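Narrative summary of target 7.
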Amino acid sequence: MLKAIFYNPIVFRIYLFILTFIRRNTTFVFVASTGRCGTNTLYAIFANHPSVSSFHEPYPIVLSNNSEISKLDSDMLSIQKRKILTILRNAKTPIYFESNHMFVKNFIEEIFTYIPKQQIKVLHLSRDAVKVATSFYSIGSIPGKTKRGKKYLLEPAATNNQIKLPELLENGEFQHDFYKCLWYWYEIEARVRFYKKKFHQYFWFDVSTNNLNNEDAIMKLAQYIGLDISQFSRQLNIGKKYNLKLAEKKDTSDIEVDEMHTKFRSLLDSHGYLSFPEPK
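Modeled conformation, tokenized:
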């Protein structure tokens, strides 16, 4: 009964109006990424700054398999709308910073719908395609196949994908799980490009995983999100890596990742998808 009172569209609208008014001077920063590219490191860089409420995949994460709440609860109020309210409640400093690779997959549309667009900034965090795919493959996170892959990644067979490759779903030369991991990287990058065009009037900032240990690059990033860079470099946690999952990774020496990547790019080209530059 209480859930029905607090989680329904009318209460959501009222609460949304109140919270967006309270947070009218807040800057909301989100990270668009594949995961396995430094999202935890990026969160940690800003975690100790007094002007930033920094979070790494805070609840609700908005998982791809919709497992965080029941269908009954979701029918009352979607996990995405619950996410919006949680973000607004947690934004208690001038800058709200969320590093969560579910953003570009599962709640970016709601962010741009319910949070005033002039208060939103997005960081596009990218890492080499082969390195990301290898990282996911090595921990058994296979898109659309393993439990972890279904929970955190994407489904290659989904009809709303930007990149549709039936070869990934068939028995044949592209059935190896590593190809699904490569597809995931390209699908995320395709979605980022789609949303950059859709929300082109809003600010996006591109950052490479390779620059997360570069103080000059982080200073530019900090300036972009609205921090005064003249006095706070000591408050940033630069130079450490997090969430490496070394204990979970299996050996990948049995596959020729670069050769498979070249072959996969040929597949993309055959379907007209290869408008991407060669990843560096």
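The two ends are 54 Å apart (CA to CA).
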